[in-house]
Amino acid sequence: MTPLLEARGLSKFFPARDGKGLVRAVNDVSLSLAEGETLGIVGESGCGKSTLARMLMRLIEPSGGKVLFQGEDLLSLSRAAMRQKRRDIQIVFQDPYASLDPRMNIAQIIAEPLDIHGIGSTAERAAKVKDLIALVGLDPASATRYPHEFSGGQRQRIGIARAIALEPRLVVLDEPVSALDVSIQSQILNLLDDLKLRLRLSYVFISHDLSVVQHVSDRVAVMYLGRIVEEGPADAVLGAPKHPYTQALISAIPEIDSTRRKTHVLLPGDPPNPEDVPPGCAFNPRCPIAQEICRRDEPPLRSSGASRARCHFVDEA
Amino acid sequence: MSEHALLRVDGLTVGFSTEQGPVRVVEDVSFELKAGHTLGLVGESGCGKSVTAQTIMRLLPSPPSRIDAGRILFDGKDLAAATQREMQKIRGDRIGMVFQEPMTSLNPTLRIGEQIAEPLMLHRGQRRAEADEQVIGVLKQVGIGNAERRLLQYPHELSGGLRQRVMIAMAIICKPKLLIADEPTTALDVTIQAQIMELLKALQKELGLAVLLITHDLGMVAEMCETIAVMYAGRIVETGRTVDVFANPHHPYTYGLLTSSPRRARKGERLPSIPGLVPPPGARGQGCSFAARCPNVLERCRIDAPPLIALGKDAAACWNPVP
């Protein structure tokens, strides 16, 4: 079966600040997402996860590679055709404060995609907006209110209503709950789960929070400095991580339950500057098990069990 | 209450004057922290935890903020009644502070060395040149390698993790008795967060610091703090030894927070969640502020705000606690 979404060798290079070098924000990433699945993408700031998300829906033009949606190459589409295609691919951003126009009321914000794509009559659109407001759990009376009158969690519901207005097949969620408090976060995660079943959606779920990703994802890809370093079924990647970076990420989470607490694998230093990626494996300066070969040769993604990991010592790791 | 508390906050009530009139943000908050111990003050945005911390340091401008009632006894002295001049002598000397966002707390136009030396010049009357040796020492203590070179750098040349280490260096250079850390790792990536947490733990032991940790991260409290105070809508709703509170939370809010974390839920299952929203200050109404969201609510809860009641090994402000 054709995957719903496939990235093949996708890259994005930006000129470095010194004008000479290249920043490999996303470097040769290949992924696929089956219909009805949730693909989690995790990594720390600057790893390229948001750039990747934007390329998947062509909000950023890739420097190389392909994005196939239902088998069709999105990069070959004209502007007009791409605009049509966006009906099927929508995005929800992290910051519900910055992504809603403060001068539009809620009904206008949610209706905007319907207006742009000229869907239905005025009356039909109004009815649809009303349905959407109820569907995401907002008070119907709030339709004429403005974004500043809502809390963060409610604003994220508005962003979600706008994203699903066109009945997309795929929704890219870029840190959708990172700005929210725990008690609100679980409400939004439940809402996303309900909508997925009801509207038969597929998700690309970007987050730095491994516990959230583990809860929502079928498959997970871990990124470090523009590369996928580990990828596979969520339970395998997060339950039995193969790459030393994934292992360190998981062990770094402070654990409430003292019986499950592990010693933190402390990574020394900071992630290197993406303008100046070390030779060999990009993770080698921080890696607890790095050897000579890691400073020299970049490892390929190797299969190990159900997942793939970019490490020379994947079997020993 | 113990005689040996280094910090004892007693009935602290803080209000703000707003265009809509005065609003209570922190209400009747009491806790104590012994020398060398750690207390985690946790809660979600707007619960009053940062206002509590900033009031202890007397960092909030007045007006609009105002201490309406209560005492803040630090080493026997009531900071709530202290003058700003007295506070200046205490801040950075006997009480160190670390904030969430090191980029906005450091002066962008001053080299790191100058900033770390400042408390020594201010509180110990040292001249800049004399301070260098101690500054290099403290940089090493907080795990910043290549200290001699770092002294000459500006904050923007450092990563977020290094900036937070610089903040910590400034906070401990005068060897304070108390460190107040307000969301010290929230702005950092998880691998850097783990580094800073380990550093704080190590320093706490090494220097015998008392630490008041303000955070929304329950995991961090579990790993760092002996005691915990959970805040909701301006009040402490549950407090006790961290292990006891986490093992057997009595307040329905604490219980909800612990169970709604996706960490505990089984995959694909609905997350238990707390319905509704935190009431904003000024709309907390009569009775218990959590009543409108509470699964255990009784008629009494809507009328009568419960005090902290001793329950098992901890104390919860609840008329109908989780058994």
Summary keywords:
heterodimer, A: 317 residues, alpha/beta, Rossmann fold, eight-stranded mixed sheet, four-stranded antiparallel sheet, 10 helices, 31% helix, B: 323 residues, 12 strands, globular
Compact overview of the structure:
Chain A is of the alpha/beta class and 317 residues long. Chain A contains 10 helices and 12 strands.
Structure report:
The complex is a heterodimer of chains A (317) and B (323). With 317 residues, chain A is of the alpha/beta class. Chain A has helices at 49-56, 79-85, 106-116, 122-135, 152-164, 182-199, 210-216, 234-239, 244-252, 292-296; strands at 5-15, 22-33, 38-42, 64-69, 72-73, 89-92, 170-174, 202-207, 219-224, 227-233, 302-304, 307-309. Chain A is 31% helix and 22% strand. In chain A, strands 6-7-8-3-9-10-12-11 form an eight-stranded mixed sheet, with helices on both faces. Chain A starts with a strand and ends in an 8-residue tail after the last strand. The mean pLDDT of chain A is 91. In chain B, the strands form two sheets. Chain B has an eight-stranded mixed sheet with strand order 6-7-8-3-9-10-12-11, with helices on both faces. A four-stranded antiparallel sheet of chain B has the order 2-1-4-5, with helices on one face. With 323 residues, chain B is α/β, with parallel strands linked by helices. The model of chain B has no long low-confidence stretch (mean pLDDT 90). Chain A binds chain B through residues 44-45, 151-154, 181-187, 189-190, 193, 208, 210-212, 214-216, 234-235, 248-249, 251-258, 261, 264, 266-267, 270-271, and chain B through 44-45, 159-162, 189-195, 197-198, 216-220, 222-223, 243, 246, 256-258, 260-265, 267, 270-275, 277-278.
